[in-house]
Amino acid sequence: MTTTPGAGPEPVTPTADLTKAPLPTKRTLRARRSLPLQAGRFALINARMMRMVLKGHH
């Protein structure tokens, strides 16, 4: 790696413009903070993974 003397860091340019991205609704934010909902989703994804693992071991 070589550097040019006196050259500072290059300016950072954004890779994507997210200023027009939609913001989450109050319902979405409430669902993301809900521990019972998170626990249910956690259990569901783990059950799906276990099913996939067990299916692969005929």
Tell me what you see in this structure.
The protein has 58 residues and is mainly alpha-helical. The chain has a domain at 26-56. It is 52% helix and 0% strand. It contains 2 helices and no strands. The chain has helices at residues 26-33, 35-56. It is flat. The N and C termini lie far apart (52 Å). The mean pLDDT is 87. Residues 1-23 are annotated as: Disordered.
- Output the radius of gyration: 23 Å
Task: Give helix % range.
Answer: 40-55%
Q: Provide the β-strand percentage band.
A: under 5%
Shape: flat
Distance between the first and last residues' Cα: 52 Å
* Largest beta-sheet details: none
Total number of strands = 0
- The overall pLDDT, averaged over residues, is 87
Structural class: mainly alpha
A few lines on this structure:
This protein is mainly α and about 60 residues long. It has a domain at about 25-55. The chain has helices at about 25-35, 35-55.
Mind sketching the topology for me?
Layout: H1 26-33, H2 35-56
Region (Disordered): 1-23
